[in-house]
């Protein structure tokens, strides 16, 4: 069954600016009700597991942290055939399939969206396990959402701002607010990682 529009956030919230895409879809879903036919999805680091979702989408909006080699926090839009020419931030593990690989796989399977908008932000900090978005990247979440909302409206799928924000689609304390509230201070943080996820062995 095809989806008219898939709005996808990809990345890893445990690695600082790498979480930009996921935090964008979290905020979008929390604050706006989508038009019928629009699905908002936290793609996280699912990689090739997203192939069938992308293959079945007629249009695709993607939020991601990317590396253009420009000033951290710079927002850049890439459309349609230009998308595969840009590469995401370096892989945090050998298992993490790049988004370009996923698009290629969807194409090989005989599908994929006819229109793609990649809303990318230049990452500044990645090597901070358990870290938050840096300020320049955090400041682009709102502008990135506005770009997505404008594109959805242009495609004929306008979103409506919710009277009251809904609960986050993230669970288990990984929603943005709980995650931030649970972060240790810089003085308390384990410099090889966030002790909530990677305890130091004494």
Describe this structure in words.
The structure is a single chain. The chain is built from six helices and seven strands. It has helices spanning 20-31, 51-55, 99-108, 135-138, 141-154, 176-181; strands at residues 3-10, 32-33, 38-44, 57-66, 75-79, 115-122, 160-161. It has a single domain (3-172), classed as Rossmann fold (3-Layer(aba) Sandwich). The strands form two sheets. The protein has a five-stranded mixed sheet with strand order 3-1-4-6-5.
Feature tags:
two-stranded antiparallel ribbon, alpha/beta, globular, 7 strands, 21% strand, Rossmann fold, 5-stranded mixed sheet, 202 residues, 6 helices
Percent range for β-strand residues: 15-25%
If you compute it from the alpha carbons, what radius of gyration comes out, rounded to the nearest whole angstrom?
A: 17 Å
- Order of helices and strands, N to C? EHEEHEEHEHHEH
CATH superfamily: HybD-like
Strand order in space, largest sheet: 3-1-4-6-5
What is the overall silhouette? Answer: globular
Give the low-confidence spans: none
* Number of discrete helical segments: 6
Q: How much helicity do the residues have?
A: 25-40%
Mean pLDDT: 82
Q: Please describe the biggest sheet, giving its number of strands, its sense, and whether it closes into a barrel.
A: 5 strands, mixed
- CATH C-level class: Alpha Beta
What is the first-to-last residue Cα distance? 52 Å
Q: Under the CATH scheme, which architecture would be assigned? A: 3-Layer(aba) Sandwich
Number of domains: 1
CATH level 3 topology: Rossmann fold
Tell me which oligomeric state these chains represent: single chain
Structural class: alpha/beta
The tally of strands reads 7
